[in-house]
Design a protein that fits this description.
The complex is a heterodimer of chains A (322) and B (330). By secondary structure, chain A is an all-alpha fold. In chain A, 74% of the residues lie in helices and 1% in strands. Chain A has one domain: ABC transporter involved in vitamin B12 uptake, BtuC. Chain A has a two-stranded antiparallel ribbon. In chain A, helix 4 runs antiparallel to helix 5, helix 4 runs parallel beside helix 6 and helix 12 crosses helix 13. Chain B is mostly helical and 330 residues long. Chain B has a domain of 189 residues. Chain B is globular, with a radius of gyration of 20 Å. The mean pLDDT of chain B is 85. Classes of the chains: A mainly alpha (322), B mainly alpha (330).
Chain lengths: 322, 330
Amino acid sequence: MKKSMGRFFTQERRRILYAYAAAVLLFLGGEAVRPGFASVASIEAVLVVATFVGIVAAGQTFVILIGGIDLSVPWVLNGAAILLVTASLGQDARAPYALALTLGMGAAVGLLNGVGVALLGIPAVVMTLAMNGIMEGLTLGLSGGLTCTACASYAPPLVQAAIHGNLLGVPHALYLWLAVILLVSFVLSFTAFGRSAYAIGNNLRASYLAGVSVTATTIALYTLSGLFSALSGIMLVGFGGQASLGMGDPYLFQSIAAVVIGGVYILGGRGHYLGSVAGAISLVALVSVLLAMNMPDYGRSIIYGVIILVLLLLYGREESRY
Amino acid sequence: MPRDAARRLRRSRSSHRLGQNAGLILVCLLLAACILGYCAIFHVSQQRFPGSFELTSTVNNTMPLAMAALGQTIVVVTRGLDLSVGGIIDLTNAIAAVAMGESAASMVGWTVAVLAIGAGLGLINGLLVGVGRLQPILVTLATLSIFQGLAIWVLPQPGGAIPPAYSDVLANGDYPVSLFYVVLAALLWHAFRRSALGVAIFAIGNDEQAAAANGIRLVRTKILAYVLGGMFAAAGGLFLAATATAGDATTGNGYTLTSIVAVVLGGVSLFGGRGSATGSLLGAFVITMIVNLLFFAHIDPLYQAFYEGLFLIIAVIASTGVGSYFRRRG
């Protein structure tokens, strides 16, 4: 019995548990700093904000599992938010078309990232960094620096309601995230596609020799990452109502932090999206605690950096080889 | 017969050299093309050829990037990547703008201090990568966030002041004095390339295991590479402050991307062990020339990041393509 317990709580599963424990501790700590922080309404608010990070982190988890990274998150997300409002002009009738266009844009950018990495052999950092620049230039240029008349449109009421509404006292956004969590976890744990992602992350050459279609899987994973960034952009603009410049900037760092906090091994092959979910929740809880303590913006960006470094030192170290 | 063999040897050696310097030759051609195109488009729109003023402003605008690219080169050659370059430039630029006084002693003292701060920031990166055995990308992404935060803490609003005398020395508006620093940097690189540390850095980038087996101290070399990278980024921050005559804690952000573009355009391999800082310096000038070209071609500056990203991808594809072509032939 004890032996099977030990086998169930592998190092990876322990890390996921630690991440959830950290989230609980942060809520308790927040309650100490500001009473009412751990109330149901406040926890719900934190979870809704964590949804945006968590959905970006789904894509980031996919690409980090194969030893890649997606640095194009900020402007794919920002571009998606602006594309949604400019394509829909705030009208429900145009919403389906705008949604399809925006998600298609995200997937297309991700596809290009994947093609660059898998077929052209460009390092993932460089490819996705360049793609971030391309999306930034296109977004700024085409919207005239967000001065275009359509840019001031609001998100269609349909999209806003889809994020803000409640069902049985729980915000819609959380159902959406739950669906993403179930879907991504299923794909990772129970499909051949998910298993080949782990295989590629563990040993690219061996998985190629074992018949895993490395190129197709890599391209598909980057495509999914672009898609999730765009989805998060749509949800964010639905939540806030209007698009703004720079709204995607925090999400690169937060998505990577969520993945690292959640115990996904940064060189690929180990970890699970359930960990990244816990990472996103504890990260947003931490930010909320810092906000409650009136910590200024720059203080938060310093603390993000320090937390990532500490966590990496705790469990992201490479083995000493020589 | 021996003569024939010798000729074959000579031919293969020259072709080998061509292969080794393909990136450098490519960036020279690219820069020449950019300059020709710039002169042509300038002549069409201004009815005269660019003169001393255009040269001076081009060199002054390039200096921060040239310095950042130099630092980036050293790190990239070890098979690392420094994403914190933008943060180091932000922070050092802010410190210089806040602290520097009018007196000569203050200017010299703070120049040294800012370079030392840059080296110290690089030391943090180096320790985390070398001793901490962490991924360079993640370390420098995290320190980028920290340095950017510190920069805004030092200088919350754009402002501060750089003494005019300091700007005259580093970024003289009347004469292309800065060309001197470019030449100096290239000469320093050639001395460095042959020094023990320079050889060690290239050895690590080529094959870490073989380098260690040959007695190269990996941790120490990596740390020093990041220290030098941080110091040159700080020099970039000083040049930026001198050109702008004031400080801004966010203008450095773009240098992370552009320094990598410059390095890749300059023919430095992102897989380590290949390339030269001379190429990166030229790559930095290519980027400035492209921005100038876009300006005269009346392309909205809002699209600048788009072109930088596009050129980065094209440059990576071209350099890997050309490199593998020459290696296959050689």
